[in-house]
Task: inverse folding
């Protein structure tokens, strides 16, 4: 079966070296059954010819806003209404800026403004350009409007530098598209998610925490929202944008997270504990900064609440999903956690060696439930979140058929 059969994809190509990947992307979209129309900016034609994309798509390539051959001079309206999805890959810094500020000075940006179809953008640029404050401000504006940002990936760049800014590979972009085009797997469901680290104060300026960035939890919250669910995200201290459409509650400590979860869990169908909650906290938080006078310092630590176990032990517990971050014996420890806490599904990932999920844009997961073990191979956390959403939805519906009848 062709996964994209019957779907109309408008592929926008802007100026950048990564435009060569768009030829492969166009071909692979069509192999999966999609109908593809290509719109190129003038800058894009300096990197790849319209003739190449015309040969691959089987249709004329559109590039001129005021083309004489356009029907009634309204190509932008016709294409805007035709498309099920708008996909811009690669998306240059200039095009992203134009879209963020509603400019419509070429055919592609005009189509975006004239279309109600969901927009997906795959950025491609130098890593310093991507990290520039103005660029990130433009990205914030687009994300707040519900635009899906695919990547960028990290790695070697054409300019010889290394970092975030590479366009995702065509197959990964297509996977995103396929997962987004599925029916609302969790439509009408209420999901509660925790993400990020917690901070356990030692004194007014110091505390105990961990290396969690919160990226996996935030990506999962966004993916579950895209699957049709109502999502409430309880987040520890992170430096991330709240996902579009997600209700985010910010907390600091493990006790605050536990209290907030228990205050909201009664209305949820599924609880996903992604947060890296501190297992222990100082028995007493000193009111003044501890001075560096003694050679040694001892801290008495007490256990924090086990939030996942608390939720799973409720009389009418929701479908519960936990995460296990391990440095060794991953399967053994995750399975033990699944059993002792009596949860429905656990996602385990390694955090040691070269494949550590910490400080990374990618991750891999081993899923364990009472029926066995499966693996989600390493990919971007955004794509991994979409794949995990699909797995959670399937398991939930299998175990809760009465609620969906």
Result:
């Amino acid at each position: 079966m062709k996964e994209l059969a019957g779907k109309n994809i408008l592929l926008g190509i802007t100026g950048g070296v990564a435009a060569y990947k768009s030829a492969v992307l166009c071909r692979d979209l069509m192999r999966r059954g999609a109908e593809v129309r290509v719109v190129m900016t003038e800058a894009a034609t300096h990197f790849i010819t319209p003739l190449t994309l015309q040969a691959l798509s089987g249709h004329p390539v559109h590039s001129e806003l005021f083309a004489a051959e356009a029907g009634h001079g309204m190509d932008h309206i016709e294409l805007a209404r035709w498309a099920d999805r708008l996909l811009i890959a690669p998306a240059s810094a200039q095009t992203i800026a134009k879209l963020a500020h509603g400019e419509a000075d070429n055919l592609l940006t005009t189509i975006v403004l004239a279309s109600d179809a969901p927009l997906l953008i795959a950025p491609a640029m130098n890593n310093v350009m991507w990290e520039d404050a103005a660029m990130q401000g433009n990205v914030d504006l687009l994300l707040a409007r519900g635009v899906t940002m695919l990547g960028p990936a990290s790695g070697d760049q054409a300019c010889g530098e290394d970092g975030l800014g590479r366009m995702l590979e065509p197959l990964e972009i297509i996977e995103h598209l396929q997962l987004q085009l599925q029916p609302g797997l969790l439509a009408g469901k209420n999901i509660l998610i925790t993400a990020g680290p917690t901070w356990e104060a030692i004194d007014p300026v110091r505390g105990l925490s961990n290396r969690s960035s919160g990226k996996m939890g935030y990506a999962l919250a966004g993916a579950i929202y895209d699957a049709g669910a109502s999502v409430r995200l309880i987040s520890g201290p992170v430096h991330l944008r709240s996902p579009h459409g997600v209700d985010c509650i910010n907390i600091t400590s493990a006790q605050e997270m536990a209290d907030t979860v228990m205050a909201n869990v009664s209305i949820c169908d599924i609880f996903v504990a992604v947060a890296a909650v501190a297992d222990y906290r100082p028995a007493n938080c000193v009111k003044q900064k501890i001075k560096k006078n003694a050679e040694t310092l001892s801290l008495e630590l007490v256990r924090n609440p086990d939030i996942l176990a608390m939720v799973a032990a409720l009389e009418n517990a929701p479908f519960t999903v936990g995460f296990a971050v391990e440095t060794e014996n991953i399967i053994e420890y995750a399975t033990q956690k699944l059993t002792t806490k009596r949860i429905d599904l656990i996602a385990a990932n390694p955090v040691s060696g070269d494949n550590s999920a910490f400080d990374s844009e990618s991750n891999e997961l081993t899923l364990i439930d009472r029926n066995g073990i499966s693996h989600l191979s390493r990919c971007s956390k955004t794509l991994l979140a979409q794949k995990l959403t699909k797995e959670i939805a399937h398991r939930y519906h299998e175990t809760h058929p009465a609620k969906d009848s």
Notes: The domain at 190-404 is CATH 3.40.50.10300 (Rossmann fold). The radius of gyration is 24 Å. The mean pLDDT is 89. The longest helix spans residues 381-399.
